[in-house]
Structures are given as C-alpha cells and as structure tokens.
Amino acid sequence: MVPSIKILPPEIQNQIAAGEVVERPASVLKELIENSLDAGATSIEVNLKKGGLESIEVIDNGVGIQEQELELALTRHATSKITYFPDLLSISTYGFRGEALPSIASVSKFTLKSRPKYQEIGFEINVKFGQIQPKKPITMPYGTHVIVNELFANIPARLKFLKTPPTEKRRSIQTFLKQALPHTEIEFKLFSDKQEIFHFYAQEDILSRLTKIWPKHIVSCLEKINFQDDNIQITGLASRPESIQARGDRIFLYVNKRPVQDKLLLSAIKKAYEGKILRNEFPQVILFLDIPPELVDVNVHPAKLEVRFSEEKTIFNAVRKAIQNTLEATTLFSFHPTKT
Ligand code: ADP
Ligand code: MG
C-alpha cells in the first residue's frame, strides 16, 4: 500500500524549524537581540538564569508589536521585514525568515509581552511548548519583553546536547558581546542570575566597551585598522604581536554589521600574522567588513552566522593587507631598541 502524503501539523513544523534555528540558549539570545535591534531599540536588557538553561529574557524599548498582530508574530513565515521576493536581495534587517519566535515558542515555555508607544496598555501572550494561550492586557513600558523558560524541556533528545550552566553562560555572554560591541549607539545590559555582568552605555565607543571585557594591557595593544580598496572597506582593531595569546575568543568578525563566523576571514587573519604567531596562538582582532551586498550571500544558513562571498580571493587579500598594513605601520612608529 502506498502511504498517503500529509502536511505536518504546525507544532511539528515549528519544532523541525527549531532544529535549525535554535541550538542552545546562546542561539535563542542571538535571535531575540536581533529582533530588538530590528525594532529600533535604543536600550536592550538581557537576563539569564543558569546560563539561559532556566530562562533567557530580553527587554527592549523598540517599536513593539500591535495587539492584533501578536499571534501573527508567533506564526511561521510571518514577518514584518520583507514583503516580496526581490527584497531578499537587499536585506538590511537581521531577521527576515519569520521563523525564530514560532520555533523558540515550540520548544519552551514562552512569554511575549509588547506595547507600541501609541497603545496605552500592553498585551501578554503565553505559549506552552507550541500551544498558544489567549492573550491578556497588562501594564508595561513601551517596547517588547520576551521570556524563554525551560528551553527544550519537551525535547529530551535536544536537552541532552546542552552543556552545563557555566558553559552555556559563557556562550551566551560571547553572543551578547558579539551583538553589543558594534552597536555603540545602543545601551546594553547583561545580568546573569541577577548579577550585573556588563553595562554598556549608549554612545560609548568600542574601545571603552572593550576595556569592560578585556584586560587593560590587552586593550592597550590594539591598533586601528583603516583600509579601503575599490568597493571594500575594512575598519576595526588588531593587536600588536606582543599581546598574542592562546585563546581564540577575542576575534570578532562582522560583515555589513552582521556578526559572522567565517573560515576565510580567519585564515586571512592568520596569514597576516604569519611569522609572528605560533600554531595555537591567536591575536585579538575586531574586523568590520563593508562590502556591496551583492558580493555576499547571508541566506546560506538559517542561523545566518555563515556568509558566502562571491569573490573570495579579493576578500581574503583585502583582509590580509588591511591587517598587515596596520601591523607594519606600528612597527615603523614604535621602535623597541631592546628587541632588535
Ligand atoms: P523575523 O525576525 O525573521 O521577522 P521572528 O520570528 O524573529 O521573525 O519575529 C516575527 C515578527 O515579530 C517580526 O517580523 C516582528 O514584526 C515581530 N517582532 C519580534 N520581536 C520583536 C521585537 N523585539 N520588537 C518588535 N517586534 C518584534
Ligand atoms: Mg527575528
């Protein structure tokens, strides 16, 4: 007998999508912060409990969601960010798939509270492992407040892959920093188990933010990168070789303001430090690549951490040169007689 074909119920569709978008607390946090950024927030607060395993909370003062659209925000492929296909080629917002909220809500005890400025009251909607409850009116400041409790409690197979609270906390903090560092115009606060971990003020420049997360002597070894080649612009910071360390978590890469993880960029950095660095050592680098949108595809992976460049060699060489130029300029200007 031929089995008949059926469309999966929406809860199952959402759980499957969650498998791609949501891997751990840090990936939930990334999606929620991106939504706050897309909503034009000027202040974003994050609260983690047990590294996000118990709860992840993001509070913003962005545009909010209208009462009548709260359920829609929790519906798969519903988004306010693109309306027709050609938009995909010129995406300027972080989100665009309309998958994050429904996915996260299908694998957690989820609360969404929101109030646009013009609405006198806010509304709260709870979702228990994909089951949407009726919304209720609440008083709240304008903006959006999302709480994700008990991530993956309904999916033992996924729960198994989560690490200990300290490890998940470390990853969540790294995600927070990746998002917060470049948005110097926005205030960011991070609390973990009610303790304040970081508070970045609005209009606080990146160097000042870095002194809050890295030791002073590391920050003082950073040199400014400023590089322009045709239509590629590279800015950021790179450490002088004397501060090179055996830890790789002090490299932050951005392409058109999106945080990325990219092997090509990493290998270009390694190349630039060749001869100054051992195999297991890393420099501290913050790199902002600004390239025409048509040279990069952000649609490769649902978590959007990976990008694909259409002219890999050009990008590789530009990054290598940008850093090499910076390092050469500093050795020219800072003469160390004892080191010759
Ligand atoms: P996407 O970001 O891809 O559009 P999401 O599932 O993350 O999809 O969010 C769905 C929709 O909910 C968004 O398009 C937006 O309209 C609304 N939304 C989500 N988070 C916020 C927020 N913090 N502030 C305002 N609107 C939000
Ligand atoms: Mg989103």
TrEMBL record:
Asked if Transferase is a keyword of the record, the answer is no
Which terms in the Gene Ontology molecular function aspect does this entry carry? ATP binding; ATP hydrolysis activity; ATP-dependent DNA damage sensor activity; mismatched DNA binding
UniProt keyword DNA-binding, yes or no: no
Give the GO terms filed under biological process for this record.
mismatch repair
Keyword field? DNA damage, DNA repair
Q: Where is the DNA mismatch repair protein S5 domain?
A: 210-328
CC terms in the record's Gene Ontology section = mismatch repair complex
Q: Which family does it belong to?
A: Belongs to the DNA mismatch repair MutL/HexB family.
Please give the function described in this protein's UniProt entry.
Answer: This protein is involved in the repair of mismatches in DNA. It is required for dam-dependent methyl-directed DNA mismatch repair. May act as a 'molecular matchmaker', a protein that promotes the formation of a stable complex between two or more DNA-binding proteins in an ATP-dependent manner without itself being part of a final effector complex.
- Protein name as annotated: DNA mismatch repair protein MutL
Q: What taxonomic lineage is listed for the species of origin? A: Bacteria, Pseudomonadati, Thermodesulfobacteriota, Desulfovibrionia, Desulfovibrionales
